[in-house]
Amino acid sequence: MVDTVSVTTNDGRNIIGVLKGYDQCINVILDNSFERVYSMSDDVQIENLGLFIVRGDNIAIIGEVPDNIKEQSQDDTSRAPPMKPVTH
């Protein structure tokens, strides 16, 4: 399993990393992970997280992304408001 995935959490965070494992509760283990932080006043910020575990009950969306997404993100000058939390 060497797929690069993007995880959007219920609190609006966007975490990207290499999927190393998951379980029946959709808890996921991401390696070489980073978070893309959006704001209206600055370009997209990259926060390196390394090995990271996301609880399945906190995942809103998960999907595969290109392997070179980190290089694309570093050159990203787009600005956007931060995502709002999921409401039930």
Automatic annotation (TrEMBL):
Keywords in alphabetical order: mRNA processing, mRNA splicing, Nucleus, Ribonucleoprotein, RNA-binding, Spliceosome
GO process terms (BP): mRNA splicing, via spliceosome
InterPro entries: Lsm8 (IPR034103), LSM_dom_sf (IPR010920), PTHR15588 (IPR044642), Sm (IPR047575), Sm_dom_euk/arc (IPR001163)
Signal peptide: none
Cellular component aspect of the GO annotation: precatalytic spliceosome; U4/U6 x U5 tri-snRNP complex; U6 snRNP
Broad class of the protein's primary localization: nucleus
Superkingdom of source: Eukaryota
Ranges of compositional bias, category Basic and acidic residues: 67-78
Ranges for domain Sm: 1-68
Localization (cell): Nucleus
Any GO MF annotation of the entry: mRNA binding
Region spans: Disordered: 66-88
Its biological purpose: Plays role in pre-mRNA splicing as component of the U4/U6-U5 tri-snRNP complex that is involved in spliceosome assembly, and as component of the precatalytic spliceosome (spliceosome B complex). The heptameric LSM2-8 complex binds specifically to the 3'-terminal U-tract of U6 snRNA.
PANTHER family for this protein: LSM1, U6 SNRNA-ASSOCIATED SM-LIKE PROTEIN LSM8
Family label: Belongs to the snRNP Sm proteins family.
Complexes and interactors: LSm subunits form a heteromer with a doughnut shape.
Protein name: U6 snRNA-associated Sm-like protein LSm8
Protein source organism: Aphanomyces astaci (Crayfish plague agent)
